[in-house]
Write a structure and sequence with these properties.
single chain; about 120 residues; alpha/beta; Rossmann fold; 5-stranded parallel β-sheet; 5 strands; about 45% helix; about 25% strand; globular
């Protein structure tokens, strides 16, 4: 069982991801505000962050940078509705193990979470 943070500006998206990963036995905290998610990572044990790239105030890439300053060992998966080579490259350079394209494919998400946590 892993401690997972999910950050997306769309409430339905975090609810869906939480439901899927909770069923797999993970403990999932969801956020729609960037700073709340960053603060949570700073104060708690977190194994994996699942971050949307397009957020309200910051990009998911910026959030990942901030989280990595607090927890360099943090693993991450990025979510995006707009996949580009540039965002993929930047996310991987910052240590995101994977990224999922929206709309989220549930079996793909489960597989990627398992892979990233195992790696």
């Amino acid at each position: 069982m892993a401690e997972i943070v999910v950050l997306d500006d769309v409430l339905d998206a975090v609810v869906l991801v939480k439901k899927v990963l909770t069923r797999q036995g993970h403990n999932v905290q969801t956020f729609t505000e960037e700073q709340e998610a960053i603060d949570h990572v700073g104060k708690n044990q977190v194994d994996l962050a699942i971050l949307d790239i397009k957020l309200k105030k910051m990009s998911g890439i910026q959030v990942l940078e901030e989280m990595k300053k607090l927890k360099p060992e943090l693993k991450a998966i990025m979510l995006t509705g707009y996949p580009t080579l540039e965002t993929a490259r930047t996310a991987i350079e910052l240590g995101a193990g994977e990224y999922c394209v929206k709309p989220i494919d549930i079996s793909e998400l489960k597989e990627k979470v398992t892979d990233v946590l195992a790696g």
